[in-house]
Amino acid sequence: MMPLILANNGEENIIRKVGGSADVKKHLEDMGFVAGGTVTVLNTINGNLIVKVKESRVAISREMAGKIMI
Amino acid sequence: MDKQIRIALAGNPNSGKTTLFNALTGTQQFVGNWPGVTVEKKEGRVRGQKDVNVTDLPGIYSLSPYTLEEVVARNYLIEERPDVILNIVDATNLERNLYLTTQLVELGIPVVIALNMMDLVKKNGDSINVEELSRELGCRIVEISALKGDGVDEVVSACVEAANGTKTVPQHSFSGSVEHALAHIEESAVHDLPEEQQRWYAIKIFERDDKALARLDLPEKTLAHIEEDIKAAEKELDDDAESIITNERYVYIANLMKGCYKKKNKGELTVSDKIDKIVTNRILALPIFALVMFLVYALAMGKSISDGGIAIGTFLTDTANDVLGDAWLKEGSRAILEGWGVAPWLIGLISDGILAGVGAVLGFVPQMLVLFFMLCLLEDCGYMARIAFIMDRIFRRFGLSGKSFIPMLVATGCGIPGVMASRTIENERDRRMTITTTTFMPCGAKLPVIGLIAGALFGGSTWVATSAYFIGIAAIVVSGIMLKKTKMFAGDPAPFVMELPAYHAPAMGNVLRGTWERGWSFIKRAGTVIVLSSIIIWFLTSFGPVNGRFGMVDELYEDETVVTEEYVASVSERMGIPEDEVEPMDDSILARVAQPVSVIFKPLGFGDWKPTVATVTGLVAKENVVGTFGVLYAYDDQDGEEELEENGDQIWDKVAEDYRDFSGGHGKLAAYSFLLFNLLCAPCFAAIGAIKREMNSRKWTWFAIGYQCGFAWVTAFIVWQLGRLFAGGANVIGLVLAVVLLGLFIWQLFKPYKEARTLKV
User: Which domains are delineated in chain B?
Assistant: First the structure.
């Protein structure tokens, strides 16, 4: 398991675990970051990421991406 | 049909909800706020249907209690219980959208699904078995294209039918141990509720949703009993209750998708992804962004077309100001009223007070509309979300979020829409910080003030204007860093997670509607506040006690029995001016109040009543500062700004002379200090009104105004006191204090953050 920030661009990964405080975790899960689902990093800029999760594109900060384990 | 039908429109952000709402209602819309919060509420009557109303709920991903939007939406659904929920679902992102649907169907309210963007799904070569999906979910599905307006009528009739039909029953179930716990909860805690509501409450109790629990107010014993069941389920599935439910919803949807969704190609980059590869590219992102912003700025607020620039906005606003503001409203109304034989004081109030004030603000409208149009365009095509993303890391360094950028950009035109634009920032702390600091940017109305000071004392030097922008930005950065270290704003930076909608060609209907909504809101807000404050300021400058008699100072001064020579002498002594310069206005309430108040500005180098009055009238509208100088210095003709520009040199000389006199020879420094204070202090009343509305709290409004004025005072103080050190003739006490204050500034700027800067997630 490693945090999402370490994933390579363009690689599809399976989410193993979503961490963080209750509300952050729930918010991530509501947006589609759920264990067992897939996530693909499309782009990185200064540590922030653009990822593909389900069919949507989500911009996510480095701090948040660190809570998503793949 | 006698019954009123209430439809609640629910869906994910970026699912085409607003477009569908507009298609449903046409022009029959009422925009307001949800009670107690600054989340926009839109209601409307369905086109061609007398008894069908639709309420647009905020865009949400879930019915969890964590964001303001979600709480607002679910409170409406639980408390108001609309007759039917119209759930708009983005077919290109079915899985994530259905996650909300699984929660909506549990409420026990009939649900109709509007499946949007099916045309795009088909274009991609994918297919969705709508009949199968409808059967599985247990509710009617209508395929629509909100953008083209296809299927909207069918949606309406499906809603009407559903409202008169049976309640939607959720078709999905959770795993054995969860259902076991849910059954227990239903039996012990919620069986007094109407049957169709039991399921939703049972699930919320299972999730330990504190807001739902507070609503139910269950006895301790029942709660303890339920807790055992929840714990058992958590132990068996090795996760917390909330995540169990979330995961099982997704698992259910994944299974559902297998049966009804056929995807042709997988993992290929869409056109939107390819655009993002360039636009949010590590190297190109900032230059592209700068170019776009430059274009927006140049078109709306740059050099006017008539001066060889490309700014349509400036051109229109200049024209509106000349024609509407001065010619029609001010002079036109004066001519008409004089023709009617209206009393001169009333003409003064209406023409010079109210209409001139309103005209000044209305003059900004064309420019604002151009700006809003372009911002709506950027928003509709999907670029706006990227801006927030690109700017986030930079803004984060000084305690703001990427979403703070837009308010600040807009504020360079006008602070009111700037403050209004802060609404898109979800995090309350970030929003408050943005509202407090955004009016530091020099707005359009401050430009004449900068021009006046630059022209009068600095020979029209351009660095004064340039420095004004630099000061605005510096004030925001410095304030951001300093405030973030105070208790009120301390804490973790708001985590940044934001959906980026796919790029698409902007829909003109949406853009124009959005432009008009914002523009109208600006006109209303600015208009009402300006009318009120113009009346007050006009009254305060026109009336006052003269030698024991109270009335219009202009009239009383014509009466020589009132204004005797001794009286003139006493006024000249009070105001500290030569006898031949005593003016009716010196006896106005404003001058009388300003004289003692001006003591506040003594340490800033401009403790004279005239700059004080100008500062106060600047609260009505910043460009009034110039007008007031015009009135105060150009005794023979009192037309203000226009005259000031024409007879500029003469008046500027007077201003410069005056500044030299009261500042003890440091005219430039005092003028710059005056400029600093006026740039940074509280904005005009209309903008303060906007701050109050967006803060939605008296305490925070006062905090914002207090902070702005305090920051302005301290900055001007430091500049004036330290400046005199270099110019010679420093005041020792002032100098020491200035150094101490500067030290505190620097200390606050560089001291480490008390709390961890990293996210506590």
Answer: 5-164 (3.40.50.300), 176-262 (1.10.287.1770)
Q: Which residue of B has its CA nearest to A64?
A: B495
* Angle B282-B287-B290 from CA coordinates, rounded to 5°: 130
Query: What is the tens place of the pLDDT at every residue in B561-570?
Result: 888 888 888 8
**Which ranges of B618-684 does DSSP label H, i.e. alpha helix?**
624-633, 641-646, 648-662, 667-680
DSSP 8-state code for residue B171: -
pTM above threshold 0.90: no
Cα angle vertex B352, ends B620, B357, to 5°? 35
Low-confidence ranges of chain B (pLDDT < 50): 1, 635-648, 756-761
Q: What is the pLDDT of residues B298-340, one digit of tens each?
A: 887 777 777 777 788 878 878 887 777 667 777 788 888 888 8
Per-residue CA distances from B412 to A54, B165, B430, B585 (Å): 39, 54, 20, 33
Domain A4-69 has CATH 3.40.50.12280: no
Q: Are B456 and B656 in contact (CB under 8 A)?
A: yes
Interchain CB distance below 8 Å, B500 and A22: no
Task: Decide which of B654 and A33 is more confident.
Answer: A33
Q: Which residues of A touch B92 (CB under 8 A)?
A: 55
ipTM: 0.93
Q: Which candidate in A12, A33, A61 is best for mutational testing of the B interface (most B CBs within 10 A)?
A: A61
